[in-house]
Amino acid sequence: MANFAERLDLALTKRGFTGAQVASTLTEAGIPITRAYVSQLRTGKQTNPTLQVLRALASCLQVSVGWLVGDDYLESGTVEELQVRAATLGRSVSGLSESSLAVLHGVVELARRAEGLSDEPAPATGIPDAAAPLSDPQCRALGKRLHALRKAARLSVEQVETALGKGAAAIPAIEEGRIAPAPITAERLLTVYGVTAPPVRDYVMSLARGERETAWYDAHSVPVWLAAAYALEQRATVIRTYHNQFVPPLLMADDYARASIAAAGPAILGQRTVDEALALVLARQEAMADQSGTVVWAIVDESVLARSIAGPHVQLRQLDLLLDHAKRPNVSLHVVPMEEPAYVPRTGPFTIWRFAEEFEADIACAHGIESDELVTEADAVESYHQAFTKLSVTTTTREETVEVLNSHRERLSRSLGK
């Protein structure tokens, strides 16, 4: 990991932190590391920090992960995860022979020349200024999120201040969006509030670190767990989804979506009314329409096509829309037959997201009765992958899907006398 130890040492010195202070701060934020480990990272004796530790160190020292791992050459504004990819290459060469390392060094030199870069990375001669303050919309969105999480944890302002230490953070001002907490303070608040799910923590911290502008799902009316799921969906390059009750929301017609929300209840999306919940579904679809590179691989039970939740006219329009979707190059739609299905998983609907970054693991989402569960544990995600794979080999092909949709459409048309 080129220059990481040198950059870490420089950042610690310039920001006035000792290794013990950083270890204590990160541990309080829910990322336990020791003073000895910080010292080993600082001296280069340890070179394999996890992405979580890298992000926490960057947050504490108010630098980007890209700068911390020694990358001066990526354009400003590049997504943080892309900056880390260069660092992950350093880990992958561990254990290679000297001859293999020499070959790789030659390839890197050729690549750098092709990109118009110098032969060697520049030494870490300076540290960037601390992160720019958040914009007013970012402050307000972050404040509302932290306020909602504190309320959900049933903690008073006084209890939070006691947990952090008196004077550590002005909780009312943060929640009102008047000031932005330091990223490491936001990490500590999430830990105090019992937020342990990595996707939820990453969603809130993306605001705290100012990594992105506010989005439609940052609205206070969208529950934080749902906003985290929507944020993952926006970044996914492949979306695998299985539904056995309704058409997948991304493929719903407007009136069908309204009927499905009325049948399940708007509270499933954390909303009070059907109209509010419908607005979220339509916003998801609009956002996905702008992501033409995202592949949606959807599997539905055939009973979904036969179930009329709001009359045959609504169902007919939904079938027409599914026929349109089935012909799109970035949509792969398949049906589990009602008669003699080869495999039916013992689960409700679920989704699996895959991302462009090689180091970022897939995340699964189990769509529950009252809320969704974001699944990150590798073995659990693999179980969902296996279920989806078993479904995939026993469902209709793309061509057969069109035949099944047309068959149900003809049946409904005859019942309507069309």
From TrEMBL:
Residues 33-68, 146-200 form the HTH cro/C1-type domain. Coiled coil: none annotated. CDD domains: HTH_XRE. One of its GO terms (molecular function) is DNA binding. It holds the Pfam family HTH_31. Gene3D superfamilies: lambda repressor-like DNA-binding domains (1.10.260.40). This is Helix-turn-helix domain-containing protein. It comes from Nonomuraea longispora.
